[in-house]
């Protein structure tokens, strides 16, 4: 067993091993596991106040930049995926606009909305509902590999063949996260019109922010800790909801920036066409590298607090003794 | 006036976006018995929108004639032009206006009851050119006293459909919509106006000795041109807001869906008014374009949230010949242009497509990347002429699908056009409301520009490489500099990279191998 995996197993087993990160962590209290009180309690229960080692948004982003920019294979993989995806879309008959690919590597469900747009553009609304499964599967594979690369680099290792094995292990989680993104978007698109046009955009944005906020840690958990799907998802939600962590703020900033860039009128690549200009390539590739930076940021934030994420509260069991 | 039947969202939103904005550029062109040239909307009763002759690109403006906007708040412009002899005639909100084709000099302006600016049709009756047109707006247009319908678009009148033709409006008025005639030479009416049971936005279609008008509530009326007698009246049950087409003894009408019922294309016998067939698309369409006819086939575009398709139906039976799916919504006012074995459609994004008339297969497409809405392209000779909402005029060579000429946009939308000899007569809206004539410009230059949707693989990859290589180099240099300053993310974990021996000197093995659990779990 490698040192890296020994440490991973140790963390996984005791979950509370103290580690040092590259920044000064504040003193923290032991995580509290209040008793679970019912359906969705893990999502909606009040959060206990406490300190934690979650890095600030600024230092997280800096680490994300260093991780992506300092690792040639990650940066090149990001660019290669965008180019291959563009060529694949062309082969399927896509005629633009190229600017849609601004969110090709976005975190789900922002990235999932890109899949939905591309799918319906190519196959219509009805055909697109089926075809989106293929796009989501592709995104899940890409995300698993990229997250595995990022986690390995953050852990001080390098990208190797076992990175891909870990990516394979995380595939069920990335698939679930992306399918969850489709579900969120579908729900939002149904709820939006029902609540009125004024709420439509709000609901859509809330779904995107909520998805990034609650699900973005799950692939990192799956890669780093090799947890089951349900454990990874639950742990992602608990990590996201750690009080004072700023995860919601980061998610909102990320989603708003992603959507804002997409809707900017008259930007390069916003017209129909299959031969993007140099300026269009610049903004699309830079935007997707920034999405990778966000993925690395999320991974760094989780790894920094992995030991502090509260375990799930035990389920309440009926007291059989009293019945007797 | 009756209120517009409110389509449910989201179909209603799509319907509203595409139908409410289309105004009065649909119209009629009729050949009828005599009119030799572009006597109806899109050239004739078949609405094919094609002329074998006409000015070739490049173009220049021959003349412009301003016409003051009319109607409530003076916001409404002219209908699509039709040609009668040397005159180009357009129906405005309160006047029928004619100008000389060669000079643009005003010829006549005849009062008209306020109504939607929809084109009339030129017919030959007893040897004279007669313009047949509709007038009147019932309880009044939107924003006028008594109005009950949605707001119209500037510079183009529109009206909501009636829910019960003949019923009084909110202010107690009854509909005063009429079918009227005008002798082009004497400007006298041929017969007294024929009362209609509702407002019409279809314009007039003339074939043979009969004129056909569609009412907003879904009724089609056949009127004998000789004496103005209503020959028949047929309720088709649906919203009828686009032009009718006529050919092969039949009248074709597109009825809009309302969220609960699908759009329908219906064929009516010109002689009896009996419905010969009705066609409903198999997909979930919600609106249908105005139809056009050529070679005994009817063409229309069905648009919905789930799919858009161009269909070709056998004119006699309504059987589907082919259906071609497209990835864009379409303006219902524009019937497909059909000529030379091809069907041409242009979507609001300015992407024109040529489809094989026999199979529906796409021959080419050209993405103009300008908004083409509330206007209709025409085919002149070998070129598809596409006007845009910002006043640009483009000519696409139909043999190759390449752009050969593009005029400078002046910001005033070009509506429908008519071909008159060596003139291309257009109606424009906005600041330049009125007529505009284009002619061949011998000093102009042609270009040859492929569609942006035609892949040029090597240049495209070249552009990508030009960006990707320096970008990656820059990023990696930056990353190296930053990484040396920041150090590892988790120092405790550093130095344990795969590929070297571990602390015990044991060679690296599969990290999953010594785990108890399945890593792919």
How is the secondary structure organized here?
The complex is a heterodimer of chains A (324) and B (521).
Chain A: H1 3-14, H2 41-44, H3 57-69, H4 72-91, H5 110-154, H6 161-195, H7 197-215, H8 218-225, H9 229-240, H10 247-263, H11 278-305, H12 320-323
Helix pairs in contact in A: 3-11, 4-5, 4-11, 5-6, 5-8, 5-11, 6-7, 6-8, 7-10, 8-9
Chain B: H1 11-20, E1 50-51, E2 59-66, E3 82-84, E4 87-91, E5 95-100, E6 106-111, E7 121-125, E8 128-135, E9 178-183, E10 194-195, E11 204-207, E12 210-214, E13 219-224, E14 230-235, E15 245-247, E16 250-255, E17 264-269, E18 275-279, E19 287-288, E20 292-294, E21 297-303, E22 308-314, E23 320-326, E24 337-339, E25 342-346, E26 351-356, E27 362-367, E28 378-380, E29 383-387, E30 393-397, E31 402-406, E32 414-420, E33 423-428, E34 434-440, H2 457-486
Please describe what this structure looks like.
The complex is a heterodimer of chains A (324) and B (521). Chain A is globular and about 55 Å long. With 324 residues, chain A is mostly helical. Chain A is built from twelve helices and no strands. The longest helix of chain A has 45 residues, at 110-154. Chain B is mainly beta. The longest helix of chain B is centred in the C-terminal third of the chain and has 30 residues, at 457-486. Chain B is globular. The N and C termini of chain B lie far apart (68 Å). Residues 1-35, 144-172 and 496-521 of chain B have low confidence and may be disordered.
């Amino acid at each position: 067993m490698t040192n890296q995996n020994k440490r991973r197993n140790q963390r996984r087993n005791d979950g509370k091993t103290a580690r040092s990160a590259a920044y000064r962590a504040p003193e923290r209290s032991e995580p509290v596991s209040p008793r679970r009180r019912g359906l969705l309690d893990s999502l909606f229960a009040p959060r206990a106040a406490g300190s934690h080692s979650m890095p600030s948004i600024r230092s997280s982003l800096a680490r994300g930049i260093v991780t992506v920019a300092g690792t040639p294979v990650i940066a090149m993989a990001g660019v290669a995926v965008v180019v291959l995806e563009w060529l694949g879309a062309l082969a399927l008959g896509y005629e633009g606009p190229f600017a849609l690919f601004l969110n090709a590597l976005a975190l789900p469900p922002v990235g999932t909305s890109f899949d939905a747009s591309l799918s319906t553009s190519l196959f219509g609304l009805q055909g697109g509902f089926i075809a989106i499964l293929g796009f989501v599967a592709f995104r899940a594979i890409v995300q698993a590999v990229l997250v595995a690369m990022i986690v390995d680099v953050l852990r001080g290792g390098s990208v190797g063949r076992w990175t891909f094995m870990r990516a394979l292990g995380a595939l069920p989680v990335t698939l679930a996260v992306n399918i969850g993104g489709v579900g969120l978007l579908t729900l939002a698109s149904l709820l939006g019109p029902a609540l009125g046009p004024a709420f439509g955009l709000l609901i859509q944005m809330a779904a995107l922010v909520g998805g990034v906020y609650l699900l973005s840690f799950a692939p990192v958990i799956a890669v780093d800790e090799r947890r089951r799907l349900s454990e990874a998802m639950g742990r992602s939600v608990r990590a996201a909801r750690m009080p004072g962590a700023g995860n919601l703020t980061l998610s909102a900033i990320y989603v708003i920036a992603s959507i804002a860039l997409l809707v900017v009128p008259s930007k390069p690549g916003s017209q129909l066409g299959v031969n993007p200009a140099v300026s269009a390539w610049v903004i699309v590739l830079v935007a997707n590298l920034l999405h990778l930076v966000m993925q690395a940021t999320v991974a760094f934030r989780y790894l920094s607090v992995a030991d502090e994420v509260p375990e799930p509260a035990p389920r309440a069991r009926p007291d059989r003794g009293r019945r007797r | 006036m009756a209120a517009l039947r409110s389509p449910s969202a989201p179909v209603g939103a799509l319907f509203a976006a595409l139908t409410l904005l289309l105004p009065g550029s649909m119209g009629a062109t009729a050949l009828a018995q005599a009119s030799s040239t572009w006597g109806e909307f899109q050239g004739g009763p078949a609405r094919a929108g094609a002329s074998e002759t006409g000015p070739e690109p490049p173009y220049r403006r021959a003349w412009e004639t301003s016409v003051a906007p009319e109607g409530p708040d003076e916001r409404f412009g002219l209908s699509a032009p039709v040609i009668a002899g040397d005159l180009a005639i357009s129906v405005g909100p309160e006047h029928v206006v004619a100008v000389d084709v060669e000079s643009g000099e005003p010829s006549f302006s005849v009062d008209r009851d306020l109504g939607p600016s929809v084109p009339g049709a030129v017919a030959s009756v007893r040897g004279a050119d007669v313009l047949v047109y509709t007038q009147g707006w019932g309880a009044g247009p939107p924003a006028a006293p008594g109005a009950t319908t949605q707001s119209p678009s500037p510079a183009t009148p529109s009206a909501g459909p009636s829910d019960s033709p003949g019923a009084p409006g909110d202010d107690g008025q009854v509909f005063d919509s009429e079918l009227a005639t005008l002798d082009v030479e004497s400007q006298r009416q041929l017969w007294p106006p024929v009362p209609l049971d509702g407002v019409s936005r279809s314009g007039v279609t003339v074939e043979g000795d009969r004129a056909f008008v569609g009412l907003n509530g879904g009724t089609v009326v056949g009127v004998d041109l000789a004496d103005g007698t209503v020959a028949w009246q047929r309720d088709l049950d649906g919203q009828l807001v686009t032009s009718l087409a006529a050919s092969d003894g039949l009248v074709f009408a597109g009825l809009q869906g309302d969220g609960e019922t699908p759009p329908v294309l219906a064929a009516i016998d010109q002689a009896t008014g009996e419905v010969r067939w009705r066609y409903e698309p198999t997909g979930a369409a919600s609106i249908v374009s105005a139809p056009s006819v050529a070679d005994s086939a009817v063409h229309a575009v069905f648009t919905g949230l789930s799919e858009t398709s161009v269909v070709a139906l056998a004119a006699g039976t309504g059987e589907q010949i082919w259906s071609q799916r497209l990835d864009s919504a379409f303006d219902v006012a524009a019937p497909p242009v059909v000529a030379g074995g091809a069907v041409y459609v242009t979507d609001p994004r300015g992407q024109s497509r040529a489809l094989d008339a026999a199979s529906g297969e796409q021959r080419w497409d050209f993405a103009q990347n300008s908004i083409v809405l509330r206007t209709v392209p025409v085919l002149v000779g070998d070129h598809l002429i596409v006007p845009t909402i910002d006043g640009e005029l483009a000519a696409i060579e139909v043999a190759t699908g390449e752009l050969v000429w593009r005029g400078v946009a002046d910001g005033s939308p070009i509506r429908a056009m008519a071909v008159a000899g060596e003139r291309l007569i257009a109606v424009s809206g906005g600041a330049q409301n009125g007529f505009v004539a284009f002619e061949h410009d011998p000093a102009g230059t042609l270009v040859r520009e492929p569609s942006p949707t035609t892949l040029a693989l090597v240049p495209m990859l070249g552009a990508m490489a030009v960006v990707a290589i320096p970008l990656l180099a820059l990023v990696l240099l930056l990353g190296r500099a930053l990484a040396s300053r920041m150090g590892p993310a988790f120092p405790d974990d550093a130095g344990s990279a795969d590929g070297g021996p571990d602390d015990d000197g044991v060679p690296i093995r599969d990290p999953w191998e010594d785990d108890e659990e399945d890593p792919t779990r």
